[in-house]
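$ ./design --mode recover --in tokens.txt
reading tokens...
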């Protein structure tokens, strides 16, 4: 039981694609995973490893959180965790509590429809990210889904297990489970690694191409890195285009420690959060570099 409660709530939420909106060294404030909201009201105490939902007054340990999220019993949580709570199993398989992906017996997010991106708000959002709609539609979909009793829509990027990464406005990241990486396999010995799908689309935009001849791994969160390691190790060279933050740097170093030939391309857009931020804020540089076809020479 103590082993279960020691599992980090922060890491668990990140594995679901849920990241803090505000963060301090000892705690983080999140948008509640139990409802759609714009102001964070869900606190995670990193020191005590406890959560509290100011909107409902509920709180507790990782076990309480999983029980509430998945609508399962205490014993079901313990049984699931005991199957892979050892360090070896967690490193090999990642950490996941998806079970039926339900909340009080109802699906957390149910896909209603999958369409090409045509909704005016999503078209604007795609263009605000510096991406042409035609390119976005090549790799993404317009996902209509239900979160409990309300319907929503978002740009969705499919992962290797059939789940979708969701994004439709600044600061909003979510997913339709299961959470996983996305790979593009061209049977090449060179692999490009991106943290999120906007970065991958930014790379293609800067390159002025619709697809790359190389293999690609989109992590869809640095917490998915271990899931990508075997794929990365199968390549002769790896080029990383991760974020210029602590998580991105740590992920790059983890890849470097496991692979003999890793080229860190994030230094080429130093001073920017990520490759998409570079694309959006540096249009002149984008056009200039685009002519040089940044890719492996970036």
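writing sequence...
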């Amino acid at each position: 039981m103590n082993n279960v409660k020691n599992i980090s709530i922060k890491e668990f939420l990140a594995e679901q694609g849920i990241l803090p909106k505000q963060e301090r060294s000892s705690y983080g404030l999140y948008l509640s995973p139990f409802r759609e909201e714009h102001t964070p009201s869900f606190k995670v105490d990193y020191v005590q490893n406890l959560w509290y939902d100011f909107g409902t007054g509920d709180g507790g340990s990782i076990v309480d959180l999983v029980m509430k999220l998945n609508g399962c019993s205490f014993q079901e949580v313990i049984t699931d965790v005991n199957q892979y709570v050892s360090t070896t199993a967690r490193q090999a398989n990642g950490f996941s509590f998806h079970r039926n992906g339900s909340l009080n017996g109802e699906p957390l997010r149910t896909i209603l429809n999958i369409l090409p991106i045509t909704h005016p708000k999503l078209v604007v959002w795609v263009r605000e990210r510096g991406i042409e709609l035609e390119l976005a539609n090549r790799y993404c979909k317009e996902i209509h889904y239900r979160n409990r009793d309300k319907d929503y829509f978002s740009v969705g990027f499919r992962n290797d297990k059939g789940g979708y990464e969701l994004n439709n406005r600044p600061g909003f990241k979510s997913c339709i489970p299961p959470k996983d990486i996305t790979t593009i396999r061209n049977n090449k010995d060179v692999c490009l690694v991106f943290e999120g799908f906007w970065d991958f689309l930014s790379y293609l935009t800067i390159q002025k191409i619709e697809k790359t001849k190389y293999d690609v791994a989109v992590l869809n969160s640095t917490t998915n890195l271990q899931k990508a390691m075997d794929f990365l190790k199968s390549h002769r060279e790896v080029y990383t285009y991760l974020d210029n933050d602590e998580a991105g740097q740590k992920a790059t170093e983890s890849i470097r420690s496991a692979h003999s030939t890793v080229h860190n391309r994030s230094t080429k857009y130093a001073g920017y959060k990520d490759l998409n931020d570079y694309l959006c804020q540096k249009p002149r540089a984008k056009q200039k570099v685009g002519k040089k076809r940044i890719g492996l020479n970036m």
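exit 0
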